[in-house]
What we know:
By secondary structure, the protein is α+β, with helices and mostly antiparallel strands. It contains 3 helices and 4 strands.
Amino acid sequence: MKKVTVYSSSPCPWCSRAKALLTQADIAFEEIHVDFDSKEFDELIERTKMQTVPQIFVDDVLLGGYEQLKKAVEEGLFA
C-alpha cells in the first residue's frame, strides 16, 4: 500500500476536496495541518518550494495538488 500524506490548512476547499476524494476511494492518508506561520508550513515550503495547499505526497514523492490527485486516482495509481 502506498503511503499518502496530505498537507492542508483550514479553511481550504481544495484540501477538503482532496481528503474527500481519498476517503471515497478508500485510500488511507496522513494529514499534516499547516498554519501559514507554523513550523510545518516552513517544512512544506522547503520540501516543495511552493506556498499552496493541498500538497500531496505519495511514498514521499510530491504528486501535487487536487487536480494531480484526481488524475492519479482516475488512472489507478493507487490500485
